[in-house]
Each structure stands twice: as C-alpha cells, then as structure tokens.
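Quick one: structure tokens for this chain, please?
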Amino acid sequence: FNIFYDHVVAVNHEGLITHFQPRGSSPLLLKHATTNEGVEFIELSETQFLVPGFIDCHVHAPQYVFTGTATDKPLMEWLEAYTFPAESSLTD
C-alpha cells in the first residue's frame, strides 16, 4: 500500500472520488472548494487521515454470472437466492 501526504481529494455529491492529486498541483481545485457555495472544504490535521471505503471485488466462479444483480439484498439472502443454487448444480 501507499501513503500519500499533503494531497487533495475531491469527492462528488454521490461519494465518488473525482480528483486525487498533490496539494501544490491543484490550485484551481482548492480555489473552487473554498469559494463556491454547496462545496464543503475539510482540511485534515496532521494526526488525521483518510481511508477510502473498501469494496469487495472478488467473486467465486459460480457467482460471476450474477455480478451486479440484486445488489440491494443482504449478503446471505443473495447467496441463498443466486450463489448456492448455482454451486449445487456444479459437479467435480
């Protein structure tokens, strides 16, 4: 993993990272963040850090065909409805 010091991270209203760059290389981004209404500017102290959300991107072979389906379901409900039936149809 990498640790980046003194960088600017811009996050849109949907929570997606839109910019990530060294602080000195982004004067327009900083100006936009500090002068526009509806834009919140948060500067972290030296003892704070930012960790983006982790997304589990791994799938097992029987789950591949169901990627992106029923993403609103809790995990066990999704497994029972899609993965487990697909796994039970497989043979060694």
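The chain has a mean pLDDT of 81.
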